[in-house]
Predict the structure.
Amino acid sequence: MTEINFSDFVNAMPTEDKNTVALRVTVLGGGSFGTAIANTAARNGCDTTLWIRDAKTAQEINEKHVNTRYLPDFKLDKNLKVSSDIEQAVRDKDLILVTIPSHSFRSVLQKIKPFITAQAVISLTKGIEVDSFKFMSEIIREELPQVPYGVLSGPNLAKEIVAGMPAGTVVASHSERVRFAVQKALHSALFRVFASDDVHGVELGGALKNIYAVAMGMAAAHKVGENTRSMILTRALAEMSRFAVKLGANPLTFLGLSGVGDLFATCTSPLSRNYQIGFALGQGKTLEQAIKDLGQTAEGINTIIQVRKRAIELDVYMPITNALYEVIFEHAPPLNIALSLMKNGHRSDVEFVLPHRDV
Amino acid sequence: MTEINFSDFVNAMPTEDKNTVALRVTVLGGGSFGTAIANTAARNGCDTTLWIRDAKTAQEINEKHVNTRYLPDFKLDKNLKVSSDIEQAVRDKDLILVTIPSHSFRSVLQKIKPFITAQAVISLTKGIEVDSFKFMSEIIREELPQVPYGVLSGPNLAKEIVAGMPAGTVVASHSERVRFAVQKALHSALFRVFASDDVHGVELGGALKNIYAVAMGMAAAHKVGENTRSMILTRALAEMSRFAVKLGANPLTFLGLSGVGDLFATCTSPLSRNYQIGFALGQGKTLEQAIKDLGQTAEGINTIIQVRKRAIELDVYMPITNALYEVIFEHAPPLNIALSLMKNGHRSDVEFVLPHRDV
């Protein structure tokens, strides 16, 4: 049992004074992003543990201070502890930051449930649970209904964070204390943590952006210009925010780092898997060929399937997502994407400014 | 005198029927964008005139159907008429589209005033009038107080438009008739015209974006990563929308083509003058050196001076614009830009979602 209640603890700690009791932070998941975030917290003076499933890897990182698999070129902070014992990692902590992939997210929460007392749980995972179409914040609420929770999302390439290049991210929570604690744990001169209370809006940005990286890759195969690329980005934001608003989010959240910021980073990275799959599809390859050439599939493909299904159920107009689905699964020509942009259905630029019926 | 009143005319014309009386459109200004837009209207079946100050150039384009100075590689529509007679160009028209640079915008409006009866006047010019800090829509209202008016702005490289690459733009007007007429005149399968009623928001996007192209160029000189570029883009949107809201605009407009769309195009074009001046400044050159190397100045420099002054008067927090000013005019190191992004003053991601005081 933790002796200090999470909320008392956060209240008691003034921002300015670095000499108070260190926040006890655990990051679940030792991929590149989890490692980078744990390293950031450790550098910030938090009492930080990184939980990794594999005991041998945990021991190796503890000894060498390098995550040879995911971030081989970076020396990690000496004070970062790595553990494969989940009870030890989770008990008596203040913040649990979860970077577990979406398909295992729920099962890891079930595993930590017996050790949760007053910890806050923050999802750093971008994605949607397959089949259930649940977001990570919803899984937290279902599995750990009592905990204070939040999500963190933004354009955050792990390699750039550990290299100390300036970056920003967004923590979203309905609890001011959770937002404050996450900012305290991770904010530094080179990693800026902005706050929001729009949990769904923030996590939807991270979950949906991969769809549009596929579209951008497909467009690149057709050598589109700046005008077209800008239109793809903007129409992507229009349908993302339209979808998000239907789920209760605030469209203005998409103006921020977790929305357009993450979308911009994703859509201007020709090396991302989503972009490359899109490029291959744009060249006229089938999905099977594209996956075979790339050696793996991309998150965006699964997101397209799920979001299209949900958009039909919710009656949300998502022409780009639909066009992608038709190209990938219904043999429509890749130029379908361009046509979807030019469709005359919705003529308002931003429908939350001027409703379509008033155009 | 026009025999058909502008408003009656628009009302009487159904969208579907292309065989009704053609809209009479005049584009003032024969630069690359003016020429591309006039060509678009002519292709759309409008009775279109392009007004160019120089009689010889006008005659040459009429004969060759090529604008050899600005768009030498493109054959223009045969039905496009070019005139250097401003009275003939403006009288008895339905739409006057003004693509005159901001420093001559007012004087051209004064020239056409005697010939204005029921025409609508639309500004296609991105910029701010030097000294007065007036936007183009304000100049229209001052010089032609009776006319229905609007603005058109978006990520619209002229060369891509005449080449028929898919593009989109935004027309903003308080008048539904003006919006409808501009959509009718310019909308086609390859050029999509979205509508908005946020005139100030739409024109501010086009006027302010050059500031951030300078910042992006400066950052590129320091080899920043994707995380930092995304943060510059997002913080740019934050301060643009903050400034615009102070002037009565809707922050959601910045989610659209004239906001983030145009900003994205500008910030990902390393060949733009603003970007190149920023790059030179980032390398530690003085403004004088940078201008000398480039052979000319960039619009963004003037915009920085004007917007900073206005932001101080309006008490709007614009850390990037300020930092740029300090680097260019007050000998601050170029890294100032990075520091301005990391300043801890405002910690909300999107202040219109979560006010700074509540973070």
